[in-house]
Amino acid sequence: MGPLPPLKPAGVGSGLGEPRTIEGILDAVSCLADGQPVYALMQGNANVLTQPAANSCQVGRAQSGALVRVEGIYQTSDTLPLVSMDRRQLSQGAVLADPVGYVEDIQPLFEQTCAACHGPVAQTMGLVVTEYEALQKGGQNGTVLTPGDPNASKLWDVINTGSMPLIGELSPEQKRLVYAWILSGAPETRPDPPAAADLWFKISPVDYNTVANSCDVTEGDTGSFIPATQVRIASCAAIPTAEQLAQIRPSARPSAQTASLRSDVLPADVEASADDAGASAEAAAEVDAEAVAATSVQPVTPRVSAAAGQTRIQAAPLGLGAPTDADPWLIGRGGFCVEQRLAQRLENSHGITSLAFAPDGRLFIGLDAPSTGEADPNILFDAFHPSRSVVVYNTASSDQFYTPILEESGRITGLAYAGGAVYLNRAGEVGRIVDGGSYERLAIGFPVNGRLFHANNGIAVSNGWLYVSAGGVRDGFSDGIINPGDGDIPAETQAVNIASGGNGYGARLVRAPLDRLLTERNIGVFQTAARGFRNPYGIGVDPFGRIWVTDNGATNVGEEYLAGDEINLFDPASLTGSGEASTPFYGFPIALSGQNKEWWTVPTLPLLNTAAPTGITWAYGTIFFAQYGRNPGLYRLASSGGELVAERVMLGWPIQAVTTAPDGAIWIGTGNGGLYRLSPGCN
């Protein structure tokens, strides 16, 4: 067993954990300084700009009533954030989350612990620390304080090492206080919080509608900025609940001052004075509210899961309690043993994205940058960054070594072994590596949205077919509700085309005859097997030749709606007709529009919104799948009273890959490089 990771994130956009209600700028600063996102509700329409300045280039439009994810707070025209959830971008402004001043905090501490040697009576080496100006001046050997840089400050050095004060070392909390004070610039008094009118929020690119740029975007433009006055702060770390949102629904429209900030980037025909702009903003908000009310999602009746008998799952419930964060971390529940492998080689240096076994026990592993800790956005959000690799590991050995067989690859999210070759999904393409050979591309052209991790994800070979779970490029809620209109084109066809961005190989489960794919090597060989997904991820094949698919539903969706996070079961034998129209249509995005149509296939198991299921596999007579969103970990399906229930058998985050070994054991791979073997039989 490996040690507990130093930080188990409570959100990062996934809705993991419970949302903490927050109010005001200081709460938002505190949340971001902890590395967590802030969720806020738009109080009116706002242009999204490339820089935190009213005269920068417009790249999109955030709609009134939309929920946005705030990733940083900037002051007007500043190139560096006041505070950011990216800890590498933390600035001195981050200390506003817990402001420290000399008069309020440091002086009382020094009077208590340092006055005997450096106070009014005795001034050892000419240094006085109980008066602000005297401390700034220093002593006989010069200054002891470098505001903004604790590591360059002699004061911090002697306190941190414990050599001072002589009466006894400061407590960790007292040291933290001194460090934070120096880092913030060693102010004499606690700083006042900045006014919202002077601040800009950097929001997630998936939370607004893009528009054609009306000006040239320069190399330095970073995008996604809106005025802080346009939102109401709602929660920290996780998406707010419906009850929390109900308390902050738009009650006050944008002020004239807010509107005037935006007036010089509005089209010329709607430019106005500050007063006129404020009135226009109010009128626009009223119109938008009516439009939203007319087209908003209507709550849908919770769908009933498929009968357990239809799934051929005979496993009985283990009687485990509901998931809680008090579960043991990476320790099996319900009688499962957990054994860690390759800890010295992978942990915290790589992330495991995919796993696949050969019949002889070789394990193929897809590697990526770690998805925990300080992520490099150049890698994290770039599906084609040449840092990925595939290695093979002999699981029968007890050593810590593996052999690379593919280096410098695009993102790899799916592996499958068949007929002497490992097949893999790379961002936008499918290929294979024959034993002892090099990589061969078989098809290219799947849609990719790197920032959303949408691409061709899972892969499987079954009964002569190669299956690929191909993600869409649209969120479906943050990007606007997918609600197909009237016309000659069927609603289900319109919906899936919108979700896929018009790419016939996205937002679908697709398949290709393996022999034809190896001969023709063209994406045109693929055909739709099932539609209606948002971002289908894992694929598992059961002993009956059926395909199990996990689907990541929409984000920023209230609990009263079903967002499309679900486990789906596709039986190839059910395809009786020809053409895409005869294929089944699963729960997203129609789940958002409330259109209960006869062509809507009921999911085998609906999951909580933002559950974000990933890998899936058949083992020990049932299905095991992973979640990296809400209630993360490894789950097992069981048949109970004619329906299916899911029980968490291991807490873990983020589990991305799940597969079954030739001996029947379950193997999982995590985003921080953890590789684990699970088998039943432990107390």
Based on the model shown, name its key terms.
28% strand; Neuraminidase; seven-stranded antiparallel sheet; alpha+beta; four-stranded antiparallel sheet; disordered N terminus; globular; 3 domains; 683 residues
Would you write up a description of this structure?
The chain is an alpha+beta fold. It has 3 domains: 20-86 and 196-295, no CATH class; 102-183, no CATH class; 308-680, TolB, C-terminal domain (Neuraminidase, 6 Propeller), CATH 2.120.10. Helix content is 17%, strand content 28%. Strands 1, 2, 5, 6, 7, 9 and 10 form a 7-stranded antiparallel β-sheet that branches. It has a 4-stranded antiparallel β-sheet with strand order 11-34-33-32. A 4-stranded antiparallel β-sheet has the order 12-13-14-15, with no helix packed on it. A hairpin with an 8-residue loop joins strand 14 (388-394) and strand 15 (403-409). Helix 2 crosses helix 6 (172-183).
Brief summary of the model shown:
17% of the residues lie in helices and 28% in strands.
List strands and helices in order, with pairings.
Elements (H helix, E strand, L loop, with lengths): L19 E2 L2 H10 L4 E5 L3 E4 L8 E5 L4 E9 L7 E2 L17 H12 L1 H4 L13 H6 L16 H7 L11 H12 L15 E5 L5 E2 L14 E3 L3 E6 L5 H5 L9 H8 L10 H22 L12 H4 L24 E6 L1 H4 L4 E7 L4 E7 L8 H4 L7 E7 L8 E7 L2 E7 L2 E6 L2 E6 L4 E6 L11 E7 L2 E6 L20 H9 L8 E6 H7 L6 E5 L3 E7 L5 E6 L13 E5 L19 H4 L11 E2 L6 E7 L2 E6 L5 E8 L2 E8 L4 E6 L5 E5 L4 E6 L3
Antiparallel strand pairs: 1-10, 2-5, 2-10, 3-4, 4-8, 5-6, 5-7, 7-9, 11-34, 12-13, 13-14, 14-15, 16-17, 17-18, 18-19, 20-21, 21-22, 22-23, 24-25, 25-26, 26-27, 28-29, 29-30, 30-31, 32-33, 33-34
Helix pairs in contact: 2-6, 8-9
